[in-house]
Design goal:
Two copies of one chain form a homodimer. By secondary structure, chain A is α/β, with parallel strands linked by helices. The first copy, chain A, folds into two domains: 153 residues, Rossmann fold (3-Layer(aba) Sandwich), CATH 3.40.50.720; 97 residues, N-(1-d-carboxylethyl)-l-norvaline Dehydrogenase, domain 2. Helices cover 46% and strands 14% of the residues of chain A. The N and C termini of chain A lie far apart (53 Å).
Amino acid sequence: MEIVLIGSGSVATHLGLAFKSKGVIIKQVFSRNPANAENLARKLGTTFIDDISDLYMDADIYIYALKDSALKTILRKMNTVPRGIHVHTAGSVPMSDFEGFTAQFGVFYPLQTFSIKKEIDFSNVPVCLEASNAETQIALVNLAKLLTDKIYIINSEQRKQLHLAAVFACNFTNYMYDIAAQILEDSDIKFEIIEPLIAETADKIKTLNPYDAQTGPAVRFDETTIDRHLHMLKGNSNFKKVYDLLSKSIYLRHKKQ
Amino acid sequence: MEIVLIGSGSVATHLGLAFKSKGVIIKQVFSRNPANAENLARKLGTTFIDDISDLYMDADIYIYALKDSALKTILRKMNTVPRGIHVHTAGSVPMSDFEGFTAQFGVFYPLQTFSIKKEIDFSNVPVCLEASNAETQIALVNLAKLLTDKIYIINSEQRKQLHLAAVFACNFTNYMYDIAAQILEDSDIKFEIIEPLIAETADKIKTLNPYDAQTGPAVRFDETTIDRHLHMLKGNSNFKKVYDLLSKSIYLRHKKQ
């Protein structure tokens, strides 16, 4: 099995390292930025290109781990699109972006947050697959099985919703941690004190659904505490807006039902 | 060591069970609601009262795990405030609420989210202590040590900030999970698919600070995706408002620095 990686960001890096550790041959890495391409190629013990016309033509699978807008641009730049299966890794890009360029294509979307500096255990990463035909789907399932048992067949419309849900569950959640960190820093309190709370909040939803797991002043309709907190935030209009909107939202969510 | 628990909610329940498992004698449980009092007393193998004038007078420590507004009310109702140490468990209530009622008092604030249905490993719960004098502080440290090594001396002003930070890191975070769950449910996607993402997002901040751990369309200034997501949320004005405000906040946070 030979793979070519188009892209050199954190998804390309983590996928490349994971496949390499399973004995898959990473034949080539492409990035428009030669330094990034070289850097990832070194990590993966392979070659790199920064000109798409030098693309290796005989790989089994081409994985496009690019910014959302870059996929069609790069496909258009290819003189000949290689045979083999072409997949992108993006939550929000429809599979149909490959149509007209190649026949065997699909999506290989690992639903996880990737940072270059943080290792990932891929056996715990759900991979969402979509394929242009049954044969391609089988090939992608076999590819994904090398990394994880958590394999889901998800169509483009569902994947868009999944990506949107992930923005709330991951990106916005992390921003809540960031606000907490700033509040603690301003009071000379170490961030570590709040880490067990963050861990337990995440752990809880394995056994309770988030609706039932909700705690805090807003769900208790504890206006005294809410007003006190809003007053404490008067020096930061942005944090105050976030606190106010989320408290009202939680209140309405739990009042209605 | 004899303890009396004033209150029968989730904090009282988890603390009571944790102390009992360490051999501390829970002498009595009080709640205004006799059914709740009886229920917790049964779990702890002890007696209950629903009239504060029946309070056991010879305990070493009285733990008030009550709604924020109830502490002074209950203290005022006591004909005689017992000797012994009096502590409350609340993040937002100043220690000074005990002043004038008794001499030995303090705060025993476990920084964790407690739900009746979810067991807690107390060895991983930070306990924030504050005491009216040195002798009381030593007694409270010894009490906390029965449960955990994570003991912090935190004054009332810091504790208020800590509680505010916890609302963001826990309550609002859980609400982000809840919104994600609702989006997934509307698209017939199982919530389990997003659980590894939630776990990794929480795990990440053990090695990266939340600022550096931030990912997603807002921090990439990816307006195309943000606009697409806002469009997808047009049927839910509240989710749309949350998405918009948090994306703008993340954008400003990362643009500035």
